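User: I'm new to structure prediction. If I give you an amino acid sequence, what do you actually give back? Let's try with this one:
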Amino acid sequence: MPNASKECHLFLLDLINRGDVLAANGRAYMECVPTDTIYGIPLGEENVRVTITVPKLKGALLPIPTHEATFIEEAIGGFVAWPKRLVVVQTSLSQASKGPSNAPDREAEGKK
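Assistant: Good question. You get back a string of structure tokens that encode the predicted 3D arrangement of the chain. For your 112 residues, that looks like this:
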């Protein structure tokens, strides 16, 4: 059973516009192995276990439906498989705001 999760955006393929569309926000359990199962079905190499917290594209089909859920809003709070390539894990604000490690130290420059 997964133990560590990360906030993520879950996308679906948009075949009409030939891109990806944000389908939901959720939590991804990235430390899964292909033999882990959801409702008795192995995840496989290309998928990851996720929990949907906020559906963004109501009425959209899950990319990998289960016996319990076919649509995104039916899967809120439960586990579903999602293609890894369509999961974008969020970074924390503290990591995002640090900037590149080679950025000049403005405080050190002011002391010269």
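You can read the tokens as a compact description of the fold. Here is one thing that stands out. The two ends are 55 Å apart (CA to CA).
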